[in-house]
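ingest -> validate -> predict -> emit
validate: passed (alphabet ok, no gaps, 120 aa)
predict: started
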Amino acid sequence: MENSQKIQIVSCSGASNTGEFADKVARKLDESGEANMVCLAKVAVGDQSLINKLKTQQDKKIVVLDGCAINCAMKILGKENITITNIIHVNTTDFGIIKGKTPVTDEKINEIVEYIKKIA
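emit:
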């Protein structure tokens, strides 16, 4: 996939298994070359160069992958001073993952990866 067509992926990397799923999915897509992983922490602290880069790439798909219903990643990108649009929001719990209970497996990671590749 050509760099200009890559998915931009912003992922929760929270402390629970749901955040671990989100993080591993994003890293797998990044490592495969199919996505560019965006640092959520840099966005959260207001790194203006990264925020401006995301805003100028609004023609690209931006996948926000949250780990649970709190939707931290989505809330960060929706802050007034950030306001990123053209977002596809995915939550790991939509795949039958239960916070604090579902073991992290390659099978489930691959299922989410394939879903994101289909929708983005």
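DSSP finds five helices and four strands in the chain.
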